[in-house]
Design the sequence.
């Protein structure tokens, strides 16, 4: 078996996932991971699948490209070569960082720059910008892994300073606390 990464982008419509999974099934492939969302009417999906060596990457690529082109979607395939994780061997804790404030350029860049300087890995990011100056309308939710060795005082100070410079309200919570508070 070989693994591949499939990325699909384009205007959302019913049947995209059905088409991708059907082609993989027809080529004896198995989906191992999927992350899919709709961003302002655009489908964005990433799949990791294993396929038999006999199926061939090029054969599956041609089948997917033909099917996705008919749906006016872009598809990109590449072999997946597992590498030792550069971050997962580091002891860390999961946190949720949320920011709210007026929409403007550089918000994500400003916040993630601070995280990167402190060795913090963003594992998931959701940003909803509705425009305008109403602070509640523009929200970013960062799911992050913070190494146990992080200098919390320095990180907290740097992050809050940057959030203030960007006119953002900031919240940091351990994921367990965030989930308990926001449980429906």
Sequence:
């Amino acid at each position: 078996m070989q693994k591949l990464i499939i990325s699909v982008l384009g205007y959302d419509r019913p049947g995209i996932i059905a088409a991708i999974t059907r082609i993989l099934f027809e080529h004896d492939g198995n989906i191992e991971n999927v992350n899919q969302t709709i961003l302002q009417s655009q489908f964005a999906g990433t799949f990791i699948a294993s396929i038999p060596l006999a199926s061939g990457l090029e054969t599956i690529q041609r089948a997917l490209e033909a099917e996705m082109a008919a749906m006016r979607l872009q598809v990109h395939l590449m072999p997946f070569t597992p590498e030792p994780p550069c971050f997962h061997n580091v002891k860390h804790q999961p946190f949720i960082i949320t920011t709210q404030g007026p929409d403007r350029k550089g918000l994500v860049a400003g916040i993630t720059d601070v995280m990167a300087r402190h060795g913090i890995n963003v594992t998931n990011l959701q940003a909803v910008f509705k425009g305008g100056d109403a602070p509640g309308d523009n929200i970013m939710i960062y799911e992050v892994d913070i190494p146990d060795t992080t200098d919390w005082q320095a990180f907290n100070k740097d992050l809050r300073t940057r959030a203030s410079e960007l006119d953002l309200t900031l919240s940091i919570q351990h994921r367990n606390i965030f989930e308990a508070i926001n449980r429906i």
